[in-house]
Write a structure and sequence with these properties.
Elements (H helix, E strand, L loop, with lengths): L18 H21 L2 H8 L4 H29 L2 H15 L2 H4 L3 H29 L5 H29 L4 H7 L1 H14 L4 H5 L10 H6 L1 H17 L4 H9 L8 H24 L2 H21 L3 H16 L2 H11 L5 H29 L2 H23 L10
Helix pairs in contact: 1-7, 1-9, 3-6, 3-18, 4-6, 4-9, 6-18, 7-14, 7-17, 12-17, 12-18, 12-19, 13-16, 14-15, 14-16, 14-17, 15-16, 15-19, 18-19
Length: 409
């Protein structure tokens, strides 16, 4: 049973969402704006300014993302043990903010590698404790809306950063170093908002010490069958949702001019941002699995468009549908993890979940790239559709059974 099930019914709508959730959403928005402003220009900076190879770029990004996924497990468990999720979130966001000046100061590929490595450690430290903290703060009746709002604000940062990058590059005559310095400001502001506007719920501190650190097999078993079945569904779905880089490659493959290529991710991110909160609200009113199933249908439609497209317009419809899938799945899956996991193990649950999905994303992207090179672009999206169909079947099977003595909402 949810630890807050007996609390008074909160107000519906945006006004009912706690201040701490709003604050965490704006923290994500500011940090993502800073990070994406840098990352949208980083490949060009590495290759054109520092003389790196494409292989170096791939190694840097692969190691960085793998590091973040691994660290999330330990930070999530530590947040359960200490009962101080906010402190770990501050440490993670603070570490990421400290790395931002390293990018304009970098004089070699090694410096950039070190900056990205430490930045992703910061992401790994903050991710699971932050997601668990939202679950602690959110009223159960508004949990879907809370996770959806945070995801929406996070995604606003994901497309605001690249747009600001384009703007400042034009205003500053392509001075990448100056643009990188501008990215420092929103990162510092994100940490300040987190410190000032977010409070640790008393219940989180009271649960401190109930979980062993590091994680033990006994604690993993306590998360229950429902949690693990959900994680399997999410992993299969992640195999269907490989890197968005392939959306860009598909648009280019169909003849989109390089000047307009950034609009692929901008379109996807805008649709993602606009749909995440409504999807969360909907999941508070009907069975969450139905909403997730709708998200999988959007992914199947996106794969169909991208696989069969013969022109850019139809491919961009697929990109928009991909954004709808993201909006109807990512925040919702976080909500379902928070529902399924015991409150005392919420940080651990998010850590393990993020690790599994992170490793699966790496495998999915490698498979997508192999299919793209070995066969045709159509094969990549056809395979994605196949994995999405399997994920839908698993979700329907999950919907038909009791998991761990309680049902998902």
């Amino acid at each position: 049973m949810d630890e807050s099930a007996t609390s008074p019914a909160p107000r519906r709508g945006l006004k009912g969402i706690p201040r701490g959730v709003w604050a965490l959403g704006f923290v994500s928005l500011l940090m993502d704006t800073s990070s994406e402003l840098i990352h949208s220009l980083l490949p060009v900076f590495l290759v054109s300014v520092l003389g790196a190879s494409a292989l170096s770029v791939g190694v840097i990004e692969g190691v960085a993302e793998a590091t973040a996924a691994i660290v999330k497990v330990f930070s999530g468990t530590l947040s359960d043990y200490l009962g101080k999720r906010k402190s770990l979130a501050v440490a993670g966001y603070g570490l990421a903010a400290l790395t931002k000046p390293l990018f304009p100061l970098a004089g070699s590929v090694g410096w950039v590698f070190a900056a990205r490595f430490v930045d992703r450690i910061g992401k790994g430290i903050r991710g699971a404790p932050r997601d668990a903290l939202i679950g602690d703060i959110a009223p159960p009746a508004l949990r879907g809306a809370c996770y959806g709002l945070r995801q929406s604000l996070d995604t606003v940062g994901a497309f605001t950063g690249p747009l600001l990058g384009l703007l400042f590059m034009a205003l500053l005559a392509d001075n990448i170093h100056a643009v990188f310095w501008i990215a420092v400001a929103p990162a510092v502001l994100a940490v300040a908002v987190l410190v000032v506007a977010v409070e640790e719920p008393p219940a989180t501190r009271e649960r401190a010490g109930r979980v062993h650190a590091p994680i033990r097999a006994r604690d993993v078993a306590r998360m229950g069958a429902g949690y693990w079945l959900l994680t399997v569904v999410a992993a299969v779905l992640t195999m269907a949702r490989f890197s968005e880089a392939f959306l860009v490659l598909r648009a280019q493959n169909l003849g989109m001019r390089l000047t307009w290529i950034p609009l692929v991710i901008v379109l996807m991110s805008i649709v993602y941002a606009l749909s995440s909160y409504p999807a969360g609200v909907l999941s508070d009113r009907i069975d969450r699995k139905r909403v997730l199933l709708l998200g999988i249908v959007f992914l199947l439609a996106a794969d169909f468009c991208l696989a069969t497209a013969r022109g850019v317009s139809f491919a961009m419809l697929g990109v928009a549908l991909w954004g709808l899938h993201m909006g109807f799945s990512q925040g919702l899956l976080s909500t379902m993890v928070a529902d399924a996991a015991p409150a005392a193990l919420r940080g651990t649950a998010f850590g393990v979940y993020n690790l599994i999905c992170g490793v699966t994303m790496l495998l999915a992207s490698v498979l997508a790239g192999w299919l793209w090179g070995r066969f045709e672009p159509e094969a990549t999206f056809a395979a994605g559709g196949g994995f999405a169909f399997v994920a839908a079947l698993l979700l329907l099977a999950l919907a038909g059974r009791e998991a761990g003595g309680r049902r998902f909402r």
